[in-house]
């Protein structure tokens, strides 16, 4: 197996769907914007390239012989690859296939369509696409769906195309065909074709958006002149990007990720899945206030928004692959009030959303990972001002975040993290004093103590470590004895048992060494009994009293957010059971069969698996789940930090505590940047250093 993947290595399993099945159609990106294909052979939706937004409008729906294709009720087969989506269907004696790509450097999408006559006689067929346009240049985009507005559509006299003009801005869309003899109507594009027996006919549909007509028309003309060439260029873009990501000194990223040599196919697949799932969200949009950024969801919801929480879950990959934009993002968040929002809208750099209580923990993870993987302790001395005070060293911000929990205490010793929207959003009992973030506070104070010690402030370091040790037994007060899960304490002192994975993952990843062996064993037993499934996991146990509260599968009984299985496996390792994590890998790897990780996947009881993999949850109400999510980097961290056990520290030291015996004792990481130097790592530790 080659050490650097190509687009072929990520080809998804085919998904077969009928009209409006609860299937999440795949998305595409060229790092400028995003597009989603629709429940059709040719239609696309969510064609959004900041600063121009189309909202979630569907356009390009197929018509055959004057009838809407969807109305025939024929199934469509969809297969994704990083550079393209291939769709196919049979309608009587016609086979219809399409290849959809987002061309490099273009604010738009192309669909290359082929129709084959499989009958033994000549066949006349009318092929049409219906056109809709709702582009706008309204901003910032601070709602789940990007904005849109009514457009006026009109045929262009010198092209087989329609121009959509926004009512209140200069934004436009251009949609047309490259077919000879085609025609544009008021809201449609059509071509009549005579097909001999066995004959194949192709045509291309091009959809470009822009801030003004002249530039959009120029881009359209360039693309429509060679649609097959655009398809080839999309593959070249993605293969070049993947090659660069794994190559030291490449010209696309400010860093790189290590190559993995292993005979364990599941380990390799999950590692690559995590890397791809971060690259997928790279945005080099000229509309960005921050330069290169990384989105959080795509292609339908919260475009142009970066969530602190999700970014931190891929922290290791950001630090290795692209540390320069990571540092800019950290510096930007330091200057904002992280106790009032969940992220930033990158067209303006302004805050987005309400407060997520994980933010202090997330920020410390980000700073620590940037410093320790890149060997950049000088960053801790950089003077930066927060929203409410003068400039001070980053190290002091770390200490502030580490002790911010003290300001959230109320009647009890632990921090009260507020209501449902501040935590998991769809688990009504997981509120106020939760084990996860209070355990994380222990870890945060110890991490801040390491920073203080590095800077020579032994007094602060000792104080933080003393506070951390004192907090551990108070976290223990929330444990449900003998059961392996935890309570959430309410303001009136009531203890509500909550069987949620976020306690299992976070407690295990932050304070496993502080727990008695009996408790660690009980936690593992609970996870295996109530949360683990063959190819995924339940975020909430179906035995929990709150399991009927919501069907949103990222945090409920019917599925899980994409970082939770990866972090659960990390927790199993830290709790002393790498064998349990290793036994789970082959099932988890089957789920890496539908493109980058979705915002949630269904467990097997909630939806039939796809070729043995847990299927992505759908975008429709009441699920409201996007096709992909940037926290995918947690899967790569499971491999590097979990099974390889690589531990760089902020002081530049490096230790390796291998658990590779459970998966592949001969596995190697090549060109891993740890502490600012390149090393190769195996089961015996660092095997080569540069």
UniProtKB/TrEMBL annotation:
Q: Which domain of life is it from?
A: Bacteria
Biological processes annotated in GO: carbohydrate metabolic process
Q: Which SUPFAM superfamilies match?
A: Six-hairpin glycosidases (SSF48208)
The protein depicted here goes by the name Glycogen debranching protein
Annotated organism of origin: Jiangella aurantiaca
């Amino acid at each position: 197996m080659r050490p650097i993947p190509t687009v072929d290595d990520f080809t998804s399993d085919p998904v077969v769907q009928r009209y409006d099945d609860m299937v999440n159609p795949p998305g595409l990106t060229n790092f400028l914007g995003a597009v989603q294909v629709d429940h059709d052979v040719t239609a696309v939706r969510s064609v959004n390239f900041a600063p121009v937004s189309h909202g979630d409008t569907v356009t390009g729906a197929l018509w055959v012989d004057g009838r809407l294709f969807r109305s025939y009720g024929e199934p469509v087969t969809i297969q994704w690859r990083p550079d393209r989506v291939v769709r196919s269907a049979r309608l009587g004696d016609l086979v219809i296939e399409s290849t959809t790509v987002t061309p490099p450097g273009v604010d738009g999408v192309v669909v290359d369509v082929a129709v084959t006559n499989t009958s033994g006689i000549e066949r006349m067929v009318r092929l049409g696409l219906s056109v809709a346009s709702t582009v706008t240049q309204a901003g910032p985009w601070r709602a789940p769906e990007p904005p849109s507005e009514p457009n006026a559509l009109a045929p262009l006299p010198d092209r087989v195309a329609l121009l959509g003009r926004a009512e209140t801005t200069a934004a436009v869309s251009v949609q047309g065909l490259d077919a000879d003899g085609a025609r544009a109507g008021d809201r449609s594009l059509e071509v009549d074709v005579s097909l001999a027996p066995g004959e194949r006919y192709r045509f291309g549909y091009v959809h470009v958006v822009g801030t003004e007509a002249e530039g959009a028309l120029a881009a359209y003309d360039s693309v429509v002149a060679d649609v097959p060439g655009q398809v080839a260029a999309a593959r070249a873009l993605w293969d070049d990007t993947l090659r660069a990501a794994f190559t030291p000194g490449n010209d696309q990223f400010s860093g790189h990720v290590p190559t993995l040599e292993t005979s364990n196919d599941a380990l390799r697949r999950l590692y690559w899945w995590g890397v791809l799932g971060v690259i997928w969200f790279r945005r080099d949009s000229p509309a960005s206030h921050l330069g290169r950024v990384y989105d959080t969801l795509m292609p339908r919801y919260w475009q142009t928004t970066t969530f602190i929480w999700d970014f931190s879950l891929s922290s290791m990959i950001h630090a290795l692959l692209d540390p320069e934009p990571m540092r800019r993002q950290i510096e930007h968040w330091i200057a904002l009030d992280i106790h009032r929002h969940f992220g930033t809208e990158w067209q303006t750099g302004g805050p987005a959303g309400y407060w997520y209580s994980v933010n202090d923990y997330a920020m410390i993870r980000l700073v620590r990972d940037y410093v320790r993987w890149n060997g950049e302790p000088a960053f801790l001395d950089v003077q930066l001002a927060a929203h409410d005070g003068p400039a001070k060293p980053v190290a002091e911000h770390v200490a502030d975040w580490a002790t911010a929990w003290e300001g959230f205490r109320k009647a009890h010793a632990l921090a009260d993290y507020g209501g449902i929207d501040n935590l998991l959003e769809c688990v009504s009992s997981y509120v106020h004093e939760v084990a996860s973030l209070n355990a994380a506070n222990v870890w945060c104070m110890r991490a801040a103590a390491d920073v203080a010690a590095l800077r020579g402030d032994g007094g602060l370091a000792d104080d933080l470590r003393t506070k951390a040790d004192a907090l551990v037994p108070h976290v223990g007060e929330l444990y449900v004895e003998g059961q392996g899960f935890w309570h959430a304490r309410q303001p009136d002192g009531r203890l509500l048992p909550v069987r949620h994975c976020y306690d299992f993952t976070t407690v295990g990843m932050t304070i496993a060494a502080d727990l008695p062996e009996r408790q660690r064993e009980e936690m593992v037993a609970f996870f295996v009994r109530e949360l683990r499934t063959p190819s995924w996991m339940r975020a909430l146990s179906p035995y929990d009293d709150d399991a009927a509260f919501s069907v949103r599968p990222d945090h409920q009984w019917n599925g899980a957010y994409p970082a939770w299985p990866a972090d659960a496996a990390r927790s199993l390792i830290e709790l002393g059971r790498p064998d349990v994590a290793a036994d789970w890998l082959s099932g988890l790897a089957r789920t890496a069969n539908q493109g980058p990780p979705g915002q949630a996947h269904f467990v097997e009881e909630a939806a039939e698996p796809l070729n043995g993999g847990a299927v992505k949850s759908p975008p429709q109400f009441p699920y409201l789940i996007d096709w992909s999510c940037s926290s995918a980097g947690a899967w790569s961290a499971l491999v590097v930090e979990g099974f390889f056990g690589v531990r760089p520290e902020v002081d530049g030291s490096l230790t390796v505590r291998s658990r590779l015996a459970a998966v592949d004792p001969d596995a190697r990481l090549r060109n891993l940047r740890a502490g600012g130097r390149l090393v190769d790592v195996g089961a015996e530790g660092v095997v080569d250093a540069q």
